């Protein structure tokens, strides 16, 4: 059975994951209307993943005798100065999510809720990976700069990326 403190903290994270899904959906839409098809597909996939992160938490809360809260969401940012700014925001957002997961882990230890602590380890590992991917992509974006040909190739190649393969694929391209 979840304590009220843990239940509230997990519900807060449910909202953050749902908002993350919206943040990346807005990025996908922006990239799509700009004709950046590959980047757009990558963001649609990211958005789907965040929804899965949310659902995993929803199920966990309900299975442990809590009540998952489906709340209203803050509207995401829908315009960007360019694709570089968009990827900077993606990294910023993932760092924010990592901090929130860290806080949750801390609360689970304070509450001596080892089942929740164990459950959260999946999120801890996931955040390490997602931050690494975001940083690798940003390095690549900075390397491209204003080179249109570079952007064309990047937009084409990002479609091949998955969260788990991104770091290796981008790292070994040169
Ligand atoms: Fe990428 O944030 Fe979910 O966990």
Describe the structure.
The protein has a single domain (4-172), classed as Ferritin (Up-down Bundle), CATH 1.20.1260. The chain has 6 helices and no strands. It has helices at residues 4-33, 37-63, 83-110, 114-144, 148-157, 166-171. The model is unreliable at 169-174 (pLDDT under 50). 76% of the residues lie in helices and 0% in strands. The protein is mainly alpha-helical and 174 residues long. Helix 3 runs antiparallel to helix 4 (114-144). The structure holds hydroxy diiron-OXO moiety (OFO). Residues 1-145 form the Ferritin-like diiron domain.
**Amount of helix:** over 70%
Compute the gyration radius: what is it? 17 Å
Name the ligand types.
hydroxy diiron-OXO moiety
CATH class call: Mainly Alpha
Order of helices and strands: HHHHHH
Distance, first to last CA: 52 Å
Would you give the CATH topology?
Ferritin
Number of strands: 0
Q: Which structural class fits the helix and strand makeup?
A: mainly alpha
Catalytic activity: 4 Fe(2+) + O2 + 6 H2O = 4 iron(III) oxide-hydroxide + 12 H(+)
EC number: 1.16.3.2
Subcellular location: Cytoplasm
Pfam families: Ferritin
Defining traits:
Ferritin; disordered C terminus; single chain; 0% strand; mainly alpha; binds hydroxy diiron-OXO moiety; 6 helices; 174 residues
């Amino acid at each position: 059975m979840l304590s009220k403190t843990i239940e509230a903290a997990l519900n807060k994270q449910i909202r953050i994951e749902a908002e993350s899904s919206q943040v990346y959906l807005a990025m996908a839409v922006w990239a799509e209307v700009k004709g950046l098809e590959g980047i757009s597909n990558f963001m649609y996939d990211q958005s789907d993943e965040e929804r899965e992160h949310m659902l995993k938490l929803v199920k966990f809360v309900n299975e442990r005798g809590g009540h998952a809260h489906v709340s209203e969401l803050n509207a995401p940012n829908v315009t960007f100065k360019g694709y570089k700014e968009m990827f900077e925001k993606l990294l910023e957002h993932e760092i924010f999510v990592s901090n929130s997961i860290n806080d949750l882990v801390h609360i689970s230890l304070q509450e001596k809720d080892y089942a929740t602590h164990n459950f959260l380890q999946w999120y801890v590992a996931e955040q390490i990976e997602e931050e690494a991917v975001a940083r690798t992509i940003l390095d690549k974006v900075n390397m491209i700069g204003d080179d249109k040909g570079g952007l064309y190739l990047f937009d084409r190649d990002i479609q091949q990326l998955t969260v788990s393969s991104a770091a290796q694929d981008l790292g070994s391209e040169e």
